[in-house]
Write a structure and sequence with these properties.
The structure is a homodimer. Chain A folds into two domains: about 140 residues, Electron Transport, Fmn-binding Protein, Chain A (Pnp Oxidase, Chain A, Roll), CATH 2.30.110; about 55 residues, Alpha-Beta Plaits. In chain A, strands 1, 2, 3, 4, 5, 6, 7 and 8 form an eight-stranded antiparallel beta sheet that branches. A two-stranded antiparallel ribbon of chain A has the order 9-12. In chain A, about 20% of the residues lie in helices and about 35% in strands. By secondary structure, chain A is of the alpha+beta class. Chain A is built from six helices and twelve strands. The two termini of chain A are about 35 Å apart. The mean pLDDT of chain A is about 95. The interface between A and B is large, with 52 and 52 residues. Chains A, B: It comes from Eggerthella guodeyinii. Chains A, B: This is (4Fe-4S)-binding protein. Chains A, B: Keywords: 4Fe-4S, Electron transport, Iron, Iron-sulfur, Metal-binding, Transport. Chains A, B: InterPro entries: 4Fe4S_Fe-S-bd, 4Fe4S_Fe_S_CS, Pyridox_Oxase_N, RnfB_subfamily, Split_barrel_FMN-bd.
């Protein structure tokens, strides 16, 4: 993955490859008490638009995933680019298929047979993310860059802020924006791919013309 | 932080310093729908046993934190050591005190004034973790090492498995353990600091003598 990346090149396939390269990724779940939990998990394989990971049946992570079938993940490269992904988790119903997947994952990840020698590997269960909303994010440059994307049957998430027709073109939002990503016009517009989503424009607008996007 | 680290040296203060050095840490929250969310956030300051971070008022992260006052975080160093921390989030009530904290954080983190120039910094709100359960984790060696710790008024989390008095000393658990961290005895015992918590021993025990720790 070289440095000449164009925004147009960033899509779901790119972000799955990115997360596989980052490999050690934070996986968040909700526990039985409704509280967040997070741990670093390896992205084991990316194939056919699916991101695969494993969980040992004894772990709290496994219990959370089986109960909620949902996870949110984030991975960051050493040059501070980030991908987030959030969605439903699937597990093949058939045990033989799950063993086949574990074997394939162990072939692709040479450190795994050391950690789980012999048949102990089958205490691991394979899971994959398929339908998910994601975002690529690079805070290292000026302007920052963010690109939303969707995986499988999901649609892109819509977040941040939008300037409505109530805009009086006073320019207060553009002056206050720390990222300088609001452009003049009728109405003024936020350049979404550079927006920090800090919300300062909405707080500043004298005409209450700025709303959350939905 | 050098390589001659002894398990006895790993405590809450060590892990806070570790997370500050890692700096880019995954923060998980639960959103309005009860689903997990996670993003990379900077650890801005560690002081008086508190871990400080900031959130802009326009962000979903800010809304989650204000609503739940709870987060779970995980950070990993480039040599694959990990610290997790999970607990209550506090915010000073007094606005002047919050501004003072933001100013101090901006002094300590030179990239912040670039990202939020001038008074735009005050769209950020300062938060800290004080009472929390944590774990230090090093999966890079054999055996693996994990050390639980507590911060503030919390107690150490108790997780994993324990061999009860129903143990018949057959040795099946020790033979199956991928980490080889079960020692002979009456009963056999799991060396908790090296345990993967995969649960294979519990599945294997013919006498149902192994339980979750609580």
């Amino acid at each position: 993955m070289d440095g000449k990346l164009e925004i147009e090149d960033i899509d779901a396939a790119y972000c799955l490859r990115f997360l596989r390269e980052v490999r050690d990724v934070a996986f968040a779940t909700v526990d039985e008490e409704g509280l967040p939990a997070v741990r670093v998990i390896d992205v084991m394989m990316v194939e056919d638009g699916r991101l695969y990971f494993v969980a040992a049946r004894g772990k709290a992570f496994y219990a959370d995933i089986m109960r909620t079938r949902f996870t949110a993940i984030v991975g960051q490269s050493q040059d501070f680019r980030t991908c987030r992904l959030r969605g439903r988790v699937e597990r093949p119903d058939d045990e033989a298929e799950r063993h086949r997947l574990i074997d394939r994952i162990f072939e692709l990840n040479p450190s795994m047979p050391e950690l789980y020698p012999g048949d102990s590997r089958y205490v691991l269960e394979p899971f994959y993310l398929q339908d998910a909303q994601g975002e690529y994010f690079d805070l290292s440059g000026k302007p920052i860059v963010r690109v939303p994307f969707a995986l499988g049957a999901q649609r892109e998430a819509v977040e941040g802020f939008v300037i409505t027709g109530r805009c009086q073109e006073c320019g207060a939002c553009a002056d206050t924006c720390p990222e300088r990503c609001i452009e003049e016009g009728s109405p003024y517009t936020i350049v979404q791919e550079h927006c920090l989503r800090c919300g300062l424009c909405r707080e500043t607008c004298p005409y209450d013309a700025i709303e959350r996007r939905r």
